[in-house]
Design goal:
By secondary structure, the chain is of the alpha+beta class. It is built from nine helices and 20 strands. The protein has two domains: about 230 residues, P-loop containing nucleotide triphosphate hydrolases (Rossmann fold), CATH 3.40.50.300; about 120 residues, OB fold (Dihydrolipoamide Acetyltransferase, E2P). It has a six-stranded mixed beta sheet with strand order 6-7-8-3-9-10, with helices on both faces. Helix 2 crosses helix 3, helix 2 runs parallel beside helix 4 and helix 3 crosses helix 4. Bound molecules: adenosine-5'-diphosphate and magnesium ion. Magnesium ion binds next to helix 1.
């Protein structure tokens, strides 16, 4: 049966804004979510993620700009005319209906013939891993199972877009990781456009094709997990995505795509972020796992310092090294490595390949 022939939409925000009086919850948002992609909206609490998702859903009316679905303006189209699926944190299931009847609900509303309903509900209940639970009421299910029912109900009518707002944030870590894996599989199998909101950077890195990072109602950067993690365009994005060293660099000379400057007495070279300008305040951004201690290879950057602290976290050893300038840098090395065994007070050389770091504008 060709009834499951799938359509996934592309969504665009064009100069989109949402103001509450003089407060701007969203500002000048320009962003395209390509058909079939898994796009995550990531940012701190209050950064405008839910406001944007609700605008896509049709529950919030933007005050400027527009939203397009496959090039068609849908900014003021009512929510029930958008055919988008939705999963929210604690989005209530019908407590008096079984799992199967909860999942069947959107199909009944759409007047799908009952023989088709039974087949599609059965398929969808299996797809989210709830075979054998179809007859149960929601209160007989765990929190994770309830979110799977919500997911099945949101996907059963083959929406062109699935919107998810922090669907796992109430669940504990191990359960959340299990559901993340399931969600990726469901995304692959359905081919639907997924727009997923989280404030958890590791969840965003693990799940997404593209991550859109928000702060104070503005889009700070959009890119693949590797692009935003390895090539953040601002200090905010660099720090939001995980631990990072930010080392002031002076006397920076730019050549094509690369700059060479100084930290204290040491010369440092690195690729340059878009927006970093010669003569402005600049910082070297380098992640702890990209540094090592030992002899620098040809062309490596090197900084001499003294180990000032060590913190073991199970997977690795974190070494804090203090430089002659007083700057502290953190590097993580494999536990049981020679470096991990060095005592506090050891004189070391911290080194890394030129491409392992990145020079950013210091926007603080
Ligand atoms: N109905 C509203 N009236 C006034 N301010 C609102 C309203 N809804 C959201 N806001 C404000 O807009 C900002 C962004 O909110 P939201 O989009 O919910 O952020 P996030 O989902 O990233 O945590 C917050 O400062 C919030 O207080
Ligand atoms: Mg929110």
């Amino acid at each position: 049966m060709a009834a499951h022939q799938h359509r996934a939409s592309q969504l665009s925000a064009v100069d989109l804004g949402k103001a509450y009086g003089s407060f701007h919850a969203l500002r000048d948002l320009n962003l395209t979510i390509r058909a079939g992609e898994f796009v995550t909206l990531l940012g701190p609490s209050g950064s405008g993620k839910t406001t944007f998702l609700m605008s896509l859903a049709g529950f919030t009316d933007p005050t400027s700009g527009r939203i397009e679905e496959d090039g068609v303006d849908i900014t003021h189209r009512p929510a029930d005319k958008r055919n988008f699926g939705m999963v929210f944190q604690g989005y209530a299931l019908f407590p008096h209906l079984s799992v199967a009847d909860n999942v069947a609900f959107p199909l009944k509303v759409r007047k799908v013939p009952s023989a088709d309903i039974a087949k599609r509900v059965d398929e969808m209940v299996k797809r989210v891993g709830l075979a054998g639970h179809a007859h149960k009421r929601p209160d007989g299910l765990s929190g994770g199972q309830q979110q799977r029912v919500a997911l099945a109900r949101a996907l059963v009518f083959d929406p062109a877009v699935l919107l998810l707002d922090e669907p796992f944030s109430a669940l504990d870590k191990s359960l959340r990781e299990g559901l993340q894996t399931e969600l990726k599989r469901v995304h692959r199998e359905t081919g639907t456009t997924f727009v997923f909101v989280t404030h958890d950077q590791s969840e965003a890195l693990a799940l997404s094709d593209q991550i859109a990072i928000f702060d104070h109602g503005r889009l700070m950067q959009i890119g693949s997990p590797r692009e935003v993690y390895l090539r953040p365009s601002s200090r905010f994005v660099a720090e939001f995505l995980g631990r990072i060293n930010l080392v002031p660099i002076t006397d920076c000379a730019f050549s094509t795509g690369r700059a060479t400057g100084r930290h204290g007495e040491a010369a440092i070279s690195a690729p340059i972020a878009e927006g970093a300008r010669q003569g402005h305040h600049l910082v070297l951004a380098v992640r702890p796992e990209h540094l090592r201690v030992g002899e620098p290879g040809a062309g490596d950057n090197a900084l001499a310092g003294t180990i000032s602290d060590k913190v073991y976290n199970g997977a690795e050893m974190n070494l804090q090294v203090v430089l002659p300038t007083g700057q502290r840098i953190v590097l993580s090395v494999p536990d049981r490595s020679e470096a991990a065994a060095l005592p506090i007070g050891s004189e070391v050389t911290v080194c890394w390949p030129v491409d392992g770091g990145y020079i950013l504008a210091d926007d603080e």
